[in-house]
Amino acid sequence: MAAALQTLGGGIGITLHWIAFTPTIEQQATEEQKKKWLKLAQDVAIVGAYAQTEMGHGTFVRGLETTATYDPSTQEFVINSPTLTSTKWWPGGLGKTANHATVMAQLYTRGKCYGPHNFMVQIRSLENHQPCPGVTLGDIGPKMESNGNDNGFARFDHVRIPRENMLMKFARVEADGTYVQPPSSKLAYSNMVYLRGTFVMSAAQALASATTIAVRYSCVRRQSEMKPGEPEPQILEYQTQQYKLFPQLAAAYAFWFASWFMTQQHGSITGSMEKGDMSGLAELHALSAGLKSYTTAVTARGIDVCRMACGGHGYSHASGLPALFGGAAALCTAEGENTVMMLQTARYLVKCFAQSQAGKRLTGTVAYLSAVQPSPVAGNRNMSDLGTLVAAFQHRAARMVRHAAMQMQGEMQKGKAREDAWNSCSVLLIKAAEAHVHSFVVRNFAETVQTVEVDESVRAVLTSLCQLYSLYGITEHAGDFLKDGYLTGRDIDAASSHLSAMLARVRPDAVALVDAFDLHDKILRSVLGRYDGRVYEHLYEWAKKSPLNKSEVHESYYKYLQPFLKSNRAKL
Amino acid sequence: MAAALQTLGGGIGITLHWIAFTPTIEQQATEEQKKKWLKLAQDVAIVGAYAQTEMGHGTFVRGLETTATYDPSTQEFVINSPTLTSTKWWPGGLGKTANHATVMAQLYTRGKCYGPHNFMVQIRSLENHQPCPGVTLGDIGPKMESNGNDNGFARFDHVRIPRENMLMKFARVEADGTYVQPPSSKLAYSNMVYLRGTFVMSAAQALASATTIAVRYSCVRRQSEMKPGEPEPQILEYQTQQYKLFPQLAAAYAFWFASWFMTQQHGSITGSMEKGDMSGLAELHALSAGLKSYTTAVTARGIDVCRMACGGHGYSHASGLPALFGGAAALCTAEGENTVMMLQTARYLVKCFAQSQAGKRLTGTVAYLSAVQPSPVAGNRNMSDLGTLVAAFQHRAARMVRHAAMQMQGEMQKGKAREDAWNSCSVLLIKAAEAHVHSFVVRNFAETVQTVEVDESVRAVLTSLCQLYSLYGITEHAGDFLKDGYLTGRDIDAASSHLSAMLARVRPDAVALVDAFDLHDKILRSVLGRYDGRVYEHLYEWAKKSPLNKSEVHESYYKYLQPFLKSNRAKL
C-alpha cells in the first residue's frame, strides 16, 4: 500500500484514509468499536478523513472550537461548528472523497468541557454521496502541491451522533453523561513519537530523491570551460556544485540513519511501556519533535538547493524537483508547525539542564549536557577525527542550552514572569534546541557508520560522507563553535580545508551513493534524474506532450491574438 | 504597461515581447532596422520572443550551438539547429504566442566563427500563425510557476533570412561576408547592468509583498496561550515570529535602497559613457552581478520563511505566497545563474585585491578593501552604533576577499594551474563575494536612512530597521566576524541582545512599515494579506470557488469511487 501511494506521489483523496483515519480507529477505538468500523475501513467499504485542524487553529489543539456536547436524554453527542473559524479546514480527502471522518471536538458533558476528543461522524450518504443533513463540505482550493488530494472543509450544524461514536479506548462518557478519565495519556505520546518518526523518514526519502536527480543530472550536464580550449566539463566537477549537492547527499544519509534510530527506539519504548515503564518516553518525545522540525526544514531548503543546482531545467516540472519541494514544504507546517515543535524540544532541554544543575546525572541522548565542561580548553584539535567532531557538536549544543537557560533565569530574577522570559528568550531556545538535534544527528551518523554491517570499502565511503556532513555543519555554524573559544580560527580553517578535501574524495563515489538509494525512475518521476542519463532526448519528448502542444496553433490565437494583431496592423 | 503586467502577475505570452524583444531592437538594431521593426513591435503588429537560451546552454552564452552561417551568393544567413541540445529552450512566449524572435546564434562567415550574435527571424506566418517552413515550435511544458507564459522551444532547419536581419548596430557583416568588429563591447555591459538592476528591484518588490502578507496576517491570526487563562495573542507578539519576519521586512527595505543606488549609478555611468568615460563600468558591472545573485537568493528564501510563518494557510494559493516564491525562485536561475553571477563578482574582487597589493588605491564600492587593517584590534565595540556595524561588515568582507585570494595564490605557488586553483577555492570566493555584496547593502542602507528626506520620526524607525538588518546579519554569520578576533564572543552576545531589543522596538511600527510599500490588494492577490484584515470570511469565499466545488458530488465519484466502494462492500 505504502509503495502504491508512493508511486502516485503527492497524495490523493484516499491517502489520509490509510495514514490517518484507519490508524486512528486502530489506536483509539475500543474492541467493540473496532469490530464495527475497522474492517469497513480496512476493506474500504467506507472511506474516511481525519478532521482535526480548523480554519482558526492548527498546532494548538487545545484551541479547537468544534464542540461535541453530550445529550443524556437521547444518549447522543451534538457535533457543532459554533464559529466560522471552527470550520474544519485542511483534512486530506475531506472535501470530496470521504464519507466518514474522525472529528476532533471539545467534549462537553454535564456542563463541563473536558478538552478535545475524537468522534466518528458519517459525513456523506453511502447511497448517493450527498452530504449528510447538517453537514457542509467542500474543497479548500488549490495549494502549492498535492492538488491530487482534496483537502477539504467541513461545518457541522448540530449534527447528532450516537454516544457509541466517541472513540472510547481511553476516555469514556457513560450513558448518564459521567466522564471517565483515561488511565494514562502517555500512549498518545507514543503514537505522536511514531508519527514524527515517519516525518523524519519522509524527509530522508525526499532529500534522497532530490540528490539523486541533481547528482545524476550534474554528470550529464556539461557547461562552460574550466580551462580555455578544453571540452566543457560535467558540472559536478565544479567545487561550487559539489558544495551544493554533497552536503545534501550526506544529510539524506544522516536522516535515514536518524529515522532508523527513531524506529528502533520507538519499538523498544513500546515494549517497555507495555511492561509499565514510561521512563524513556519524555526523552524520545522531545527528540522526535525536534527531529521532525530539523529534518523537514533542512530537507525543504536542500531540495531547493538541488533545484537551483540544476539551473533553469530544475524549474521545469520535468525535473520533478518543484513537486518534491512542494511536498517537503508541506512537511514543515503539517502535523505540528516546526517552530512550535522545536520549542517543545527546548522545553525538555531546559528541564534537563535544571535537573543537571540540581545534581541529577542525565542519560541517553541528553547525557552530554551534564558531561560537557563549561570552560573549554582550546587546543590544536584534529578536525578530521570523527570523535573530535562529535565532541565539538555536543559542546556547542550544551553551551547553547546553558546559555539560553541562564538567560531565562536571569530575566526571571530581574522580575519577569516565566512566560515572558520564555518568549523573550525563545530565539535563543530554538537555536539551542536545533544545536541539540544537530549534535544528535551527527553522533548517530558517526555511530552508525562505525557499527553498521557493511564492507570495509563501503564503510570508508560512508565515513567520508559523515566527515563531510560534520565539517559542513561546523563551517556553516562556525560562530557557535568559535564564540567561547572551543574552536579557534585555525580550527575553522582546518575544517574548511578538510571539507574541500572531502568534496573531492566523495566525488568519484557520488553516483554510487545516490544509486544506493535505489529509487526507481517511476518513483523519481524526473526527466533530469533518469537512471539511463538520456536527459535531453526525454526532455524533448516530455515537452512535446505539453497540453499546449495538442494543436499547432493554440485556440487562444483565434480568440485573442489574431484580432489583437489585426487591429494593431490596421492602425499602422 | 509595467503596472498592467504586474497586475497580471507571473507573466504571460506577451510579457517578454515587452521586456526583452522590443528592448533588443531598441538597443541592438541600426536606425534603418529600427525603422523597419521597432514601430511594428511597439504597436504589437508583430509579437516577439527573445530566443537565447538553449536546451544545452544557459548562462554560458559562448557555448550556444545554434549557427547563423552567411551565404554571400544569396546574401542570406542560414539559421540552423545542428544538435538536439541546440534547440532554443525556455524563451517566454516562444512556444505559442510569438511570430518573430531575436535568435542568438554563432555567427559564421568566410569559414570563421565570430561568436554569438542576434538575428531577427520570423517564426510564424502573419496570416495563419502556422510555423514558417523549417521552424519547429512548441511549449516546453508545465513549470513551478509562470504557467500563464508559454515558455517555448524552437528548432531551425537551415532557415534562410536576409543579411539585413542581423542586428547590426555594433558588429556587422558586409555583403561580401566581411565581418566588421564592434567599436566597443562595453555598451552590452551597460545593458546587462541595467537588466540586473531590474532583478534587484523585482526581488525587493517580491520580498515586500511577502512580508506585507505575513505581517498583516500575523496581526489577524491568534494562537496558543502566552500565559495560562489569557486570550490567545496575535502571533506577531511571539519573538520567534518577529525573528522570522522582521529581518525579511528589513531586507525588503535594504533591497529597495540598493535598487535605487543601481538605478542612479546606471544613469550616471551612462552619462559618463556617452562622454567616452568607461571607468566606472567594471565596478558597477561586478556589483550588479553579485547584487542580482544575493538579493534574489535572500528573497526566495525569505518568501519561504514568510510562507511558513503563516502556518498551513501559507501553503494554500489563497495566501499568494506559493506564487511569490515560484516567481522569486525563477529569478535565481534566470538571466545568469546565481553562482556564476557571484563568481563574476569574485573575479573582480580578486583583481582589485591584487591591484591593492600592488599599491593602487581603490575607490567607490571597493575602496574599503585597501583601507581595512589586516590585524584587527578587538575591543569593547558599541554594537548598537551603525558606523560600528558597517565597519564590521567591511572588515569581514575585506578579510574574506584577502583570505580567498591568498589561498588561491598559495595553491598556484604550489604548482596548480590558475584555473584549478580558482576551482578549488571557488567556495571561498563565493563566500567572499557574498560578504562584499552584503557589506554594500548594509552600508547603502545606513547611508540612505541617514540622508533620505523624511520626517525625523520616520528616520528613527528606518534607523531601527537598519540596525535590525545589520545585527541580524552579524548574528547569522557570527563565525565570519569572530574568526580573526575582530568581534569577540561578548560583542556577539551584545549584538544578539540588541537584536532582541530591535525586534520589540520595530513591532509597533511593523504594520505601518508594510503598509508603506503601498501594495494594493489587486497586486498582492492574497487572502491572508488583505488590507482590511477580513481573512477568514474571504478564505471561506475563496475556497467555495474551487473548481472541485462546482458540483456537490464530484464526477470522479461516479467514475471511480462509487464502483470501488460498492465492490468492496459486496465482498464483506
UniProtKB/TrEMBL annotation, chains A, B:
It holds the Pfam family ACOX. One of its GO terms (cellular component) is peroxisome. Its cofactor is FAD. GO terms for molecular function: acyl-CoA oxidase activity; FAD binding; fatty acid binding; flavin adenine dinucleotide binding. FAD binds at residues 53, 92. Residues 7-46 form the Acyl-coenzyme A oxidase N-terminal domain. Residues 189-350 form the Acyl-CoA oxidase C-alpha1 domain. It catalyses: (5Z,8Z,11Z,14Z,17Z)-eicosapentaenoyl-CoA + O2 = (2E,5Z,8Z,11Z,14Z,17Z)-eicosahexaenoyl-CoA + H2O2; glutaryl-CoA + O2 = (2E)-glutaconyl-CoA + H2O2; octanoyl-CoA + O2 = (2E)-octenoyl-CoA + H2O2; octadecanoyl-CoA + O2 = (2E)-octadecenoyl-CoA + H2O2. The active site is at 335 (proton acceptor). Pathway: Lipid metabolism; peroxisomal fatty acid beta-oxidation. Keywords: FAD, Fatty acid metabolism, Flavoprotein, Lipid metabolism, Oxidoreductase, Peroxisome. It is found in: Peroxisome. InterPro entries: ACOX_C_alpha1 (IPR055060), Acyl-CoA_ox_N (IPR029320), Acyl-CoA_Oxase/DH_mid-dom_sf (IPR046373), Acyl-CoA_oxidase (IPR012258), Acyl-CoA_oxidase_C (IPR002655), AcylCo_DH-like_C (IPR036250), AcylCoA_DH/ox_N_sf (IPR037069), AcylCoA_DH/oxidase_NM_dom_sf (IPR009100). GO terms for biological process: fatty acid beta-oxidation using acyl-CoA oxidase; very long-chain fatty acid metabolic process. Residues 386-566 form the Acyl-CoA oxidase C-terminal domain. Belongs to the acyl-CoA oxidase family. This is Acyl-coenzyme A oxidase. It comes from Branchiostoma floridae.
